[in-house]
């Protein structure tokens, strides 16, 4: 017999990827009862509350005796906790790494080239080796990692966004509006990043990086995680087993 949780939360979707930002929070479970996604976890605390506030549409309930649900801020129960099949959130989201830095189908061909530029922009993104990133992240202060987010690929590369860029070897990029070009390079013709986003078919939160050897790579929004020591260590463990 399962232990009744002290709280649950719901979102009006069955797409578990909306909880990607929570996948490294220990003890979280998820269940799907169409058309609703359910979440439960350990004792509620300020850190968990802050993480959950970042999930659009998430509603939290306190589970009171008898399995009744009391919505946050309410005084009268609004229903009962259904019989759900729970699974660890980490198991549902953790191991599906994309192919190289989230590559998707090539965008339509266009007369767009990457050429050397004398006007080098400051780096605010980095393409680096995953082992180098892991070694930096697990030794860096959390305050140093806080402005960064990253995505990993099965070939061992890691894409890191934010400033200041980690002082490790790698290819440095200047990113604007989610479109990144290597420092010391520019697109020809010079197109507004908003135009490039439409041409590349980027959704909100997606990123695209130009490769000097030709082509683009796309990283989907759900492939990013906030930078932390735990996230870097877990990513390294997953890559080691690929």
Our count of helices gives 6
Helix content bin: 10-25%
Our Rg estimate from Cα atoms comes to 21 Å
How many domain units?
A: 2
Give the SSE string. Answer: EEEHEEEEHEEHHEEEEEHEEEH
Distance between the termini: 36 Å
Number of strands: 17
The biggest beta sheet reads: 8 strands, mixed
Structural class: alpha+beta
Walkthrough of the structure:
This protein is α+β, with helices and mostly antiparallel strands. The chain folds into two domains: 7-93; 100-240, no CATH class. Helix content is 19%, strand content 29%. The protein has an eight-stranded mixed β-sheet with strand order 16-15-13-12-9-11-10-17. Helix 3 packs antiparallel against helix 6 (229-240). It is elongated, with a radius of gyration of 21 Å. The two termini are 36 Å apart.
Q: Keywords, please?
A:
alpha+beta, seven-stranded antiparallel sheet, 17 strands, 2 domains, 242 residues, eight-stranded mixed sheet
Question: What does this entry show, briefly?
Answer:
The chain has 242 residues and is an alpha+beta fold. The protein has helices at 46-53, 89-93, 130-139, 142-145, 193-200, 229-240; strands at residues 7-11, 29-33, 36-40, 59-64, 68-71, 79-80, 87-88, 113-116, 125-129, 149-152, 157-161, 171-176, 179-182, 185-188, 207-210, 216-219, 225-226. Mean pLDDT is 84; it is low at 94-98 and 100-110.
Topology:
Blueprint lengths: L6 E5 L17 E5 L2 E5 L5 H8 L5 E6 L3 E4 L7 E2 L6 E2 H5 L19 E4 L8 E5 H10 L2 H4 L3 E4 L4 E5 L9 E6 L2 E4 L2 E4 L4 H8 L6 E4 L5 E4 L5 E2 L2 H12 L2
Parallel strand pairs: 13-15
Antiparallel strand pairs: 1-3, 1-4, 2-3, 2-7, 4-5, 5-6, 8-14, 9-11, 9-12, 10-11, 10-17, 12-13, 15-16
Helix pairs in contact: 3-6
């Amino acid at each position: 017999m399962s232990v009744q949780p002290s709280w649950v939360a719901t979102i009006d979707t069955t797409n578990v990827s909306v909880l990607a930002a929570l996948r490294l929070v220990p003890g979280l479970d998820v269940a799907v009862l169409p058309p609703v996604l359910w979440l439960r976890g350990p004792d509620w605390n300020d850190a968990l509350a802050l993480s959950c506030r970042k999930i659009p549409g998430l509603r939290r309930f306190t589970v009171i005796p008898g399995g009744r649900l009391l919505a946050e801020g309410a005084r009268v129960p609004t229903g009962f906790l259904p019989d759900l099949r729970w699974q660890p959130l980490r198991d549902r989201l953790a191991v599906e790494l994309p192919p190289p830095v989230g590559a998707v189908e090539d965008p339509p061909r266009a007369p767009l080239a990457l050429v050397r530029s004398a006007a080098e922009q400051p780096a605010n993104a980095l393409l680096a080796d995953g082992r180098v990133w892991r070694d930096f992240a697990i030794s860096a202060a959390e305050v140093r990692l806080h402005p960064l987010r990253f995505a990993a690929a099965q070939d061992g590369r890691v894409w890191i966004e934010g400033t200041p860029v980690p002082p490790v070897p790698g290819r440095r990029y200047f990113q604007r509006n989610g479109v990144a070009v290597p420092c010391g390079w520019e697109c020809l013709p010079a197109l507004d990043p908003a135009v490039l986003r439409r041409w590349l078919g980027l959704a909100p939160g997606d990123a695209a990086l130009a490769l000097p050897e030709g082509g683009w790579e796309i990283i989907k929004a759900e492939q990013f995680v906030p930078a932390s020591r735990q996230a870097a260590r877990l990513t390294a463990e997953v890559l080691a087993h690929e």
